[in-house]
Specification:
Structural class: alpha+beta
Strand content: 15-25%
InterPro entries: CENP-L
Pfam families: CENP-L
Number of helices: 8
Keywords: Centromere, Chromosome, Nucleus
Subcellular location: Chromosome, Centromere; Nucleus
Protein name: Centromere protein L
Oligomer: single chain
Length: 371
């Protein structure tokens, strides 16, 4: 099927918008209405429910939701060293696959334990290599498991973990890192573990993986076997993508267009998706109009109004209701993310990276099943 070229239109030309007023919770990870906070650490998905176990002119309407109380700002939580800043910068510009985790059993962060994990993972990879799983991709070598400081901004956050697998690419003699995985929790709002479980379990809400599929799958399998946990692929619903687009548009000073990609129904022949690109200045103007200047929280209603404003503008010009199609991919100056859980951090701001990671932590935490 032929995919149309990017559609770029100025918002200043048209008023109003028919949109996805996504009030329904069907297909979303939360069970009660959520309020997200937009503050120094960014917006988060907040559900005030306890968890005890795992298993034309642009205008805004009145908001009626009540946001949660804000938490400490980033500057109050932590100060970063040069090593921590360099660690955070390593996450920028790479395509990551996101996964969520159940608590890890008997994970220890002592240097001797990390060294032991490195050896067992290397042995696991060597065994898989003998099965011929990596022949067509790469030749994996040794693996290392180390702490990765800088992502733990909250008092209850465990120190992040970096897993690296080295190897030789096909027809190459030089060994290099072919796969990276980062386990993290950034600014956890609450501890998902019972007090009696704290000695035996460590909770990392999320894992990011960058590398060949076969090697990535091997790392996931090793984690599940070694720590008796589950590694679950994280996908983003249309509502979650729309919320990210609305939320992160107001964070970045660079003027990068906001792009929304909608999946066209299969009944429509000759067209697979619609790529809608809007000037960042216009989007920021819309964003400021729906925001209350004295509020530091960002709500569902504000996200709905933002997406609705963009969609109705498109309808006025092309007479196409984007609200009837699922939002498939979003891209702005901070992040580019798709429904399949793949994303790339495109911001140059370390603070904005942490805001994204905090939001991903909240998404994963909200998905942690209650037994």
């Amino acid at each position: 099927m032929e995919t149309p070229s990017v559609v770029r239109t100025p918002l200043s030309a048209v008023s109003g918008r028919l949109g996805i007023l996504r009030s329904s919770r069907i297909g979303t990870p939360y069970r009660t209405p959520n309020i997200r906070r937009f503050g120094p650490l960014g917006t988060s998905w907040r559900t005030p429910v306890s968890r005890h176990a795992y298993s034309g002119s642009l205008h805004a309407s009145t908001r009626t939701s009540t946001p949660l109380h804000p938490r400490a700002s980033l500057s109050m939580v932590t100060s970063r060293t040069e090593i921590e800043e360099n660690n955070i910068k390593q996450l920028i510009g790479k395509q990551w696959h996101m996964f969520r985790l159940t608590p890890l059993f008997n994970f220890k962060s002592k240097k001797s334990d990390l060294s032991m994990y490195s050896k067992t993972l290397s042995s696991h990879i060597a065994a898989e290599t003998k099965k011929g799983l990596f022949v067509d991709i790469t030749e994996p070598g040794d693996a290392t498991v180390n702490l990765f400081s800088g992502l733990d901004t909250g008092v209850d956050d465990p120190k992040a973990v970096l897993i690296e697998v080295k190897g030789k690419a096909r027809n190459k003699t030089e060994e290099k890192v072919v796969c990276q995985a980062v386990l993290f929790s950034t600014d956890l709002e609450f501890k998902p573990l019972r007090p009696e479980e704290l000695d035996n379990f460590t909770y990392y809400s999320s894992m990011l993986i960058h590398g060949p599929v076969a090697v990535s799958d091997t790392v996931q399998n090793w984690l599940e076997v070694q720590f008796d946990c589950r590694v679950i692929k994280q996908t983003f619903t249309a509502q979650q993508l729309g919320f990210m687009a609305a939320m992160f548009t107001g964070l970045e000073e660079e003027h990068k267009p906001v792009e929304l990609v909608y999946k066209v129904p299969t009944e429509v022949e000759g067209l697979s998706e619609i790529n809608y690109s809007t000037n960042a200045t216009d989007c920021l103007r819309l964003w400021k109009q729906i925001r209350l200047p004295y509020e530091d929280r960002f709500t569902d209603e504000e996200a709905e109004m933002f997406i609705s404003g963009l969609e109705s503008h498109f309808y006025e010009i092309f007479n196409i209701k984007l609200s009837a199609m699922p939002l498939h991919h979003v891209s702005m100056a901070v992040i580019s993310a798709g429904h399949d859980g793949k994303f790339k951090l495109t911001t140059k701001s370390i603070d904005n990276v942490l805001k994204v990671l905090r939001h991903l932590t909240d998404l994963a935490l909200d998905n942690l099943k209650i037994a």
